[in-house]
Structure formats: C-alpha cells, structure tokens
Amino acid sequence: MDMVSYAHRDATAQRLSRTKFHEESTANNLHEKPKIPLLPSSYSDDEFPYPFGELDVDLTESELRETAYEILVGACRSSTSGRPLKFVSSSERSSSSSMMSLSPSFQRSVTSTAASKVKKALGMKSRKKNSDSVVSGNKKGSTTVGELMRVQMRVSETTDSRVRRAFLRVAAGQLGRRLESMVLPLELLQQFKTSDFPNPQEYEVWQRRNLKLLEAGLVLHPYLPLDETDTRPRQLQHIIHGALVKPMDTGKHSESMQVLRNLATSLACRSFDGSSPDICHWADGTPLNILLYQILLEACFDVNDQTSVIEEVDEVLEIIKKTWVILDIDQIFHNICFSWVLFHRYVSTSQVENDLLFAADNLLSEVANDAKAVKHPSCSQTLSSLLDLILGWAEKRLLAYHDSFYRDNVDIMQSLLSMGLSATKILVEHNPRNYQKKKKEVDVEFSSVDTYIRASMLRAFSQEKERLISSRKSSKKQQSSLPILSILAQNVTDLAFNEKEIYSAVLKRWHPIATGVAVATLHACYGSELKKFVSGISELTPDALQVLIAADKLEKDLVQMAVADAVDSEDGGKSLIKEMTPYEVEAVIANLVKSWIRTRIDRLKEWVNRNLQQEVWNPHANKERFAPSGVEVLRSIDETFEAFFLLPIPMHPALLPELMNGLDGCLQNYILEAISGCGSRSTFVPTMPALTRCSAGSKFSVFRKKERPPMVLLKKSHNGTTNGDDSFSIPQLCVRINTLHCIRKELDVLEKRTISQLRDNICVHDDNLVNVLGKGFELSAAACLEGIQQLSEAIAYKVIFHELSHVFWDYLYVGDVSSSRIEPFLQELEENLEIISATVHDRVRTRVITKVMKASFDGFLFVLLAGGPSRSFLLADAAIIDEDLKFLMDLFWSDGDGLPADLIDKFSTTLKGILPLFHTDTAILIDQFEHAVQDNFAPSAKSRLPLPPTSGNWSPTEPSTIMRVLCYRNDKMATKFLKKNYNFPKKL
To answer: Where in the sequence does UniProt note compositional bias of the Basic residues kind (predicted)?
Structure first.
C-alpha cells in the first residue's frame, strides 16, 4: 500500500476536507490512491516513516475510511454494553428516523454548550464557533452526533444510507447477535447486489474492498498467529484473489459464498485455548486495527481547519470508543493512538498549532503512567514503534535546540523536551534490555538532557567558529589584528551567558546543573581548537600569546559560571570542574613538546616499516647472528632519548612516560612484524583424517614399498624452502629469535641509561625515579618473550611436519611397520638440530630444542593415533614402537650432552602413558573402550555405543584415544567391532 503525505493528496481530496460530502464525491473517492498512513508534508518517507507497519493491501484511504465508518455505525447499533442487534421493520421507520436503531449516544443532538473536558484535560484552548462549523451548518434543526461523524469522516449521505440499510438487513437475519460476534465484511457482502449501487463498477469496487479487508484481517494481519500447516488461509486467499479478478456471486445460496463464509468464520473464531470465543477476530490485528482506529480519531479534527480539534470532541470520542471491542482497543491503546494522531497532525501542519504538541505531550504522560500495565504484544509493539518515532523526531531538534528555539518560543522546547523524555522513560521501562545503562528514571532524564545540552552546545560552537572563518575569508582587505581564536573566545563567552539566560531555565527542570554542563562543553570545544592551534606552531609567537591570554580569560569566566551553577550539587561541582581541563601556559608548552615526540615517533615507525621490508634475516650478517635492522632500531631509540634530554624545557620527568610509551609502541610494532607470518603449531600440523578401520591381514608390505616415492626426491633443503623464499627458513627463524633476545637484553641497558640522565635533573630524586619511569618498555618486553615463544614453536613444528614431512608424516609406519621405522627421521632431525644449535643464541637454545622435542613427541603420537588409513599396527608392532620412541628420546638426551633427562621424561609422559595400549590385547581394549564410553557418556542399553568426540587431549583412559588404537589395530576382532558399532570405512 502506498504511504503518501497530506501534500500528496489530489485536488478532490483537498476540496472534500473543506466542505460536506455530496453524493457525487463518493464515486470519485472509489478510485482514490492509497493514502494511509498519512505523512507530514515537510518530511520524506525515510525521515518520518509511519510507525505502526504497512498494511500490504491495496486499499485506498477512502475505502478504509468507509470501513471505519461501517464499524462505527455497527458498534453503535450493538454497543459494548452487550446489546444484541435489534431489527426495526420498515413500518416502524420513516425517512427522518433512520438512526433510531442506533445507540442513544449516536442519536443525541450536538449542543457543545459546555467546554470540552477532553480539551481541558489535554491542556488545549477552546475556540469560538464559526459559520462553517458542522453545528451551525445544519439548516434543518439540531445536528446529531451521528450526522457530525458522517461529515467529519467525509462519508456521503448515499453511503451512510446504504450502510444503515445494510445493518437493518443484518439485524433481520442475525437477531440477538452482537456485532463483535460476526465477521462484518461477510455479513455486508450478502446484503447487497449490483442493483443497490448507482452502477456495476461501484458495486465491484465495494465488493473488492470487503474481500481485501477479509484478507488483511484474517490472513495478512491476524489477531492470532497462523499455523503454517493450516491450509485455510491459502484457500481463503485463493478465493479472494479470484474474486478480485472476476466478481463472485454473494447470494445466500451461492456455493462460493458458503465456502468463503466457512473459511473466514473458522479463521476469525479461533482462540488461544481452542475454545469458541464470543468475539470474531477479523479487524483486531495490528496494523489494520490501528489504521482503522486512526481514521476514526482523525474525525476529532475540523474538516475545514486541519490544525483545530472540534469542540464536540468529547461526544466524538464517546462513540468512537464503542468500536473498542471490535478493534481490540483499550484505554492504553487509545492513548497511544491518540498521541500519535495529535503529534502527527502537529508535524504535518508545519508545526503551527502548538496546542497539538501540548496535548500530545500531556497524553503521552498518561501513557507513561500506564506503560507498565501494557501486556498485549501488539500494544507493546505499537507503543515501542510510536515512541521510537517521536523520540527520533524530538531528538533531531533537541540535539540542536539552538537552531530550533529562541527566546520567544522556548515554551515549545519545554513541551518537546517533556515529550521526548516521556518517550525515553517508557522505552526504558518497557524495553529494559535496550536501555541497560538507564536504570533509574532520574538517570534517564538527566543523561538525556545532558546529551542534548552537550550536542547542541557543540553545534552552536561549531557554527560560530565557521561564521568567523567565513567572515575572515570574505574580508581579506580588512585584516584584523586579532587571531580568530581570540575573537572566538569573546563570542563563546557571549554564547555561555545567552545559554544561561534563555535555555537553562527550561533545562534545569530535568538537569540541576544545566548551565554548568553547557559551559563545560564550550570549555572543551574551545580547548580542542586551542590544542589544534598550538599543534601548528613550533615556538611561542605574539599571535600565540594573544590567543593564550584570551583563552585564559574565557576559562576564568566559564569556570566561574560552572562553580556558581554547581555549588548546590551533591559534590559541589567537583566533577564538573574536573571535566574542564585547564588552559595553562605550561600545558601548552608541554603540548608543543608532545608534538615533537609524536613527530619523532611517527618518523621511527616509518623507518621500522621500511627497513623490515628490506630485512633478509641472514644468519651470516654479523657474528652475533641477529638482524641489522634490530641494531638500527635500538640505535634510533637511543638517539631519540638523547635529543629529548637536550630540549630546553623544565618538565622532562612529566613528559618522559609519553616518550617511552611511544618508543615502546614502535619497538613492539617491530617485534610483531618480525614474527608476523612465521606460523605456529596449527600452521604446520596436518588436518586430522577421518577414522577408518583396518582390513585384517592386508599389510601388502612389498607393494607399499614399491609404491612409496624415493625419499631423496621429496627431501627439502635445510637452508631454505622449495619455492626459493628463504625468509622463513629454519636459520632465518633462528635469526629472528636472536634479534628478539638481543632487544630484550638492550631494554635493561636503556632503562639504566635513562635513570642516569634523570638523576642529573635537579627536580628528580631517587625516590621519585620509579614513578617517573613508570613501567618502561613493558609492551616490548612482553612482546619479546611472547615472540621467542611463538618462533620457537614455529621452528619446532615446521621442522617436524614440514621440513621432515617426507621422512616423518609421509614415511613413518606407512605400510609395514618394520620396514618404515624411525631411523631416517632421526638422521635428518639430528641435522636440523645441529643447524639450530649452531645458529640460535646459547641463552635461548635449550628453549628452542625443547620445543622441537615436544613437537616430535606430539608428531609421534599423531602418527600413531591419527596417521590415516595408510597406517595399521599389529599387536607385535608394539615392541618396535617402544624401541623407536627410545631412539627418539636418546637423540635429545645425546649421552648427557643434550637436554636433561627429567625434562625429556616430563614431555614424554603422555606418549609413554599411551604406548601400553598398543601392547594390550584387542578384546581387553574393546572392554576398556566400552567401560570408558559408559563412564563418560552413559549410553542406553538398546542403542549402540555413541561415537566419542576427538578432543586431542590423548590419554590411556580417554574413549577417543582407545578407539583410535582400535581403528589402527590390524586384526579381525577390532575390524568387526568397529564395523558393528560405527561402520567405519576401510579407506577414505
């Protein structure tokens, strides 16, 4: 459905809003474009969307208005008091008493002698009657409320007569039933034929309208959610869509009408508990019911004056409320919808009638009081949608209230602020998850107003600054002797006093220190500009001095206003004053030095990035075997320290931490880049293959020997990788470790040298050195340790799973275990260990070798438990595995010249604990596995054993570990057990 604004209404609709309807006008409205929901003329759909959702049905505004009028007339015949429909025969009626079957309130004459209670409650002014009003315009005597509603809703007399005639016919056929127990469009469809309309086209349009309403109310927006398995909605849509193309026979005996009635009635009479409800749900789903109710509420506005609420609003609302039972509206829902109507009308009429805003604000206050009582999901969603829209619209102005309000209309600001805060409070109470930080009502109001003040002051300051800059550019011939920041300081003072005089009086209702927050914001804004100004100078000049003097005077004025405003606050204004960072000359000088520091740091960062791109990590570059770029970065840091202590300033101790932090960051960046791309354990360890089972006795050792490619073809160079890029080879990784170790050692030297220079400063004593230095190069030191750890691990797993993969992963125990043992792997591993020992610094050598040992143990276990279908083990192979492990451990022990025995034992504990499983008989293994699974997963007696997940934390008692030993066990019992319980394949 199209959503258009009042401005987009066609000329016919504009004329009908100013005069009474005539017979001819209705025919024109039948072809009117969809116009609900109405949007304000000065806002686009994106800026001011309708808050309650789209109808998704092609119904025009006039069609929805006619539907709303039908519901209203029907509700007044069968009011909420429970009165059933009563038939009045033609002999009991006359042409002048067509309303006698309606409720007394609908037939009551409009007098409006007393002031409207509704207007009074909403704070709206009463107005004098004019000659065009509905009451004075009636020339036949007193006007009834029903006639007033007909005119206000722009319903023609012909349509009104037809609607009343329809309800007489409905009443004749539905004696004793209330309207809310019927599906009104169904009843109306059966009351009229083509002959009841001026022409067949109008009848077809009328029929299509009622069919579309059935689709909207029962299928698209039902009161109760539809079951996806329920075919009735699709059947109903099929009939409706067919009738939209070709009009259907709606006669009493029409088969298609009976099917339509049965489907529609069954859908409308659903309930949550499955019982038969007293109310048919066909027009009470959101947003259909809101659209219809909104149309009814629009009748409260004068058709000749869009900004005026009629004096008869009390009587109009009285009969409108009779539709509540049909549309599922209650007092809270009514207040929500009426708030929207008033607010929307205020905005859509160019915000000229402030009474509408005051009324919407007062009504929203009632909603705020009742918000906690909202239980219905649709009501809750409607409320949230409305409040989000109102809050968004209000905050757009409140966040820049200097642009929207001034001395003469500040009362509008107060109402808008009240409305925005009411909306925020309701949202906080109604949707606490979305507003976790706003837990208390006072916090909601305080923090919101605080935000408005700061945002608006920031905008006002920015506008004043831009005005000065623009003025200076346009008057170059009349150069001012004062810098812009000096003039801006005076203008900011004027802005602060103007804020206190005009706006703070309103804002203080919700924010006790509104003036203080405003001047603190201005103080911060000017401080930001001052800081930028100072960052552009390298020395104190006359202009800079003028700016500093003006800034000092401004600061004194602002601080004085803040202190005066916050003197009665809880902390006496301490937090506010603390927020106002002082404009001290010493601070300016310090900022200039900080600028120098930033320049040196940025230059060092660029140098680091440039040199790292050229670094080749050559182990023969120097005798210490670390990178030349590492030496250079340390030399640059040392030179920066020397230059810093030569600066002619008295605040070296105060600024030293900032310098150290910057240099620390540069050095940390160097370290991180040095280890970037070197990999880790996960980079080199192969993906764990899927589980398979062995074919008993199928070793095919001779065939596998022939199949295996010669190791010499797959062997990689120890000094590089196969692709020619040796920047990440084992020797180069060792150089990286050496470089990080060297940097870590030099950091201690730098710290001692800095302490010596600080001692020469007469302002610093030994007991203050720790406070001045702070934590020194904390980030770099930690990065060095972490980098060495990561590189050591990368070397270890690269050696085992990449450099030696041809003799380890691709060879060890592939095929026949006895012919693919560990000796080739040990030979090449020993060569790699010799390269590492010869390259890496002796202070970190043990750490790296230990990582290699751990990686070899992990890899050995990975081969045994996750080696893929090319590996299988007989019970007799266990002794070979034990012997190979001993050979591997002996390599690292190296007759006592290698790693300590206790260290080797520590890292081989897991591996040695699992090897006994390879000695264990298959039947015992199966029994252990079943017990482990039952202990861990407690499978039911009727189901097979569950597949234990692979955790990677191997253990002789862990189900996955035992199962993997069984998977690689080459005998019939293991194969049969695995096939029976898990049906693992024999190969991938």
So the answer is: 118-128
